[in-house]
């Protein structure tokens, strides 16, 4: 059952920021994650602040630099269904299309997808784990088949978003409004690894809200895709996924981004795989080399060594798709 809370639906962004700066306030976009967290007692809310009255946070528009700006209230369905995004930012469109179910994509928003809470069953369950103020990560020695093989250290949840790795691969910038004004944060710096602070998932401070995400224009010769493996063919979070974006010039890869999902507490960029692709022709031969590099340094837990092979497979598949 949902606990009691106050509910506000501000008509302006300034008002939303003011309300969200109060202790215990929580932003409500589509509610697909927030309401489950409140119902399950993952955290309390004194006030739920609906963003749904803020029309300026909706929609996809072209930026002056040829890039695109996506409002934080844009639904995942809109991202997945945009013909402009599919043509110019296929990594993002494919990632949005791979997230959750059609119903959840119709309701879930870009901002909510980036700020959703960990899906770790200890965090979501009745365990006072480190992330909830306790002393240990129960997954480290517990049921950890869906947990991290990279970057876990003190907390081994995996970042649940499919969209976030795509945005990191595209060098997107997250724009934020808050009590101290607006600021822009590269998507690569927006997520906080547990080694830095295991009590938070993003750099957002109290009262700060994601307003939009800006993605720079893709340079000529850019290709991209998102591949994901899940436990079943229906809706599900990634066991492992890969957002890959490359710029090909003169028959060779000039620049590569390989960012993994489902295997680390933040979207996990793999410079070794990017290096394996860069400077070489984008052929089928490149795929296994990038795949092997992507899995280097993995530190599986007792029950999730299978993810190392999934990483290899998903990166190989993504590079093969781009090689054509
Ligand atoms: C069964 C199921 C399967 C799923 N599968 C996938 C999947 O495969 N891949 C995937 O990527 N996701 C998956 N999800 C997650 C889903 O995509 C998210 O729940 C959704 O995107 C959240 O968006 P929302 O608008 O509903 O957010 P809300 O539930 O409204 O908010 C989520 C969190 O973000 C905060 N928040 C929301 N908007 C903002 C903002 N603009 N600024 C700051 N904070 C904000 C809220 O306070 C809350 O803490 C799944 C969810 C479910 C329930």
The description of the largest β-sheet is: 5 strands, antiparallel
Low-confidence stretches: none
**Ligand kinds:** flavin-adenine dinucleotide
How many helical elements? 13
Please describe what this structure looks like:
With 324 residues, the chain is of the alpha+beta class. It has 13 helices and twelve strands. It has helices at residues 13-20, 34-39, 76-81, 83-88, 90-98, 102-107, 110-115, 121-124, 163-169, 187-190, 271-277, 286-295, 306-323, and strands at 6-8, 25-28, 47-50, 60-62, 68-71, 173-178, 181-186, 209-215, 222-229, 240-249, 252-261, 268-269. A five-stranded antiparallel sheet has the order 4-5-8-6-7. Strand 6 and strand 7 (181-186) form a beta hairpin. Helix 11 (271-277) runs antiparallel to helix 12. The radius of gyration is 19 Å and the shape is globular. The mean pLDDT is 97. The structure holds flavin-adenine dinucleotide (FAD). Flavin-adenine dinucleotide binds at residues 26-34, 51, 72, 76, 99-100, 104, 107-109, 111-113, 115-117, 160-163, 204, 209-210, 235-237.
């Amino acid at each position: 059952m949902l606990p009691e809370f106050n509910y506000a639906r501000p008509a302006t962004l300034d008002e939303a920021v003011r309300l969200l700066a109060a202790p215990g306030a929580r932003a409500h976009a589509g509610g697909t994650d927030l309401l489950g967290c409140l119902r399950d007692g993952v955290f309390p809310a004194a006030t739920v602040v609906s963003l749904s009255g803020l029309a300026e946070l909706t929609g996809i528009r072209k930026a002056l630099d040829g890039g695109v700006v996506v409002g934080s209230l844009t639904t995942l369905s809109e991202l997945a269904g945009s013909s402009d995004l599919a043509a110019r930012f296929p990594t993002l469109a494919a990632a949005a299309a791979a997230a959750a179910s059609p119903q959840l994509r119709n309701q879930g928003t870009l901002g909510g997808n980036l700020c959703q809470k960990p899906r770790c069953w200890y965090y979501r369950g009745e365990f006072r784990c480190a992330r909830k103020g306790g002393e240990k990560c129960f997954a480290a020695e517990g049921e950890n088949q869906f947990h991290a093989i990279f970057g876990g250290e003190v907390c081994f949840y995996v970042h649940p978003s499919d969209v976030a790795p795509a945005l990191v691969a595209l060098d997107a910038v997250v724009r934020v409004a808050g009590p101290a004004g607006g600021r822009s944060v590269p998507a690569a710096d927006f997520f906080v690894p547990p080694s830095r602070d295991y009590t938070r998932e993003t750099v957002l401070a109290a009262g700060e809200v994601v307003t939009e995400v800006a993605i720079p224009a893709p340079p000529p010769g850019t290709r991209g895709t998102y591949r994901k493996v899940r436990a079943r063919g229906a809706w599900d979070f990634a066991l492992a996924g890969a957002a890959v974006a490359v710029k090909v010039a003169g028959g060779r890869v000039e620049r590569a981004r390989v960012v993994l999902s489902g295997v680390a507490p933040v979207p996990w960029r793999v410079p070794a795989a990017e290096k394996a692709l860069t400077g070489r022709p984008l052929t089928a031969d490149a795929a296994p080399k990038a795949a092997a590099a992507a899995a280097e340094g993995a530190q599986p837990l007792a029950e999730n060594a299978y993810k190392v092979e999934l990483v290899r497979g998903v990166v190989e598949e993504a590079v093969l798709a781009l090689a054509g």
